[in-house]
Amino acid sequence: MVTVELESPEVKTYIRQVVLETLKEALAASSGADATQPHSELATLLLLHVRDMEAFKIRIESELAAIKQKLGSIEERLDKIETTMATKDDLKNAVANMVTKDDIANMATKDDLIDAIAKIGKSIKKRLSEKETPTEKEMLSDK
User: How far apart are CA 61 and CA 54, in angstroms?
Assistant: First the structure.
């Protein structure tokens, strides 16, 4: 029985040469330089894998282009929506600033409004003056 030490420099050199030759065959076959199929099964498998990966890459690039196109379309629609959309605050302000027929009919003159504001002010002052300030003892008992 023959024992081969895998860590020996001779074995490593031999493995390296086989791998390089196999890769050269696969590359030559994939580039079309050699019209014949690769000589080894490993080179054939590598060539098939490379072709599968190229087809996969092309399919992914095609799908990515379609996704980018859809995304661009969505962004355009979103821009249109954002430029034409009224915000909630815009709508609240519009409702608050609406004037109806009844508002116009019930509108008071400037002098009427000034008198009404003065009466409200007097009423507030009167209530504040009537209100007694609680003593410290009352404040503590409330707590």
Answer: 11
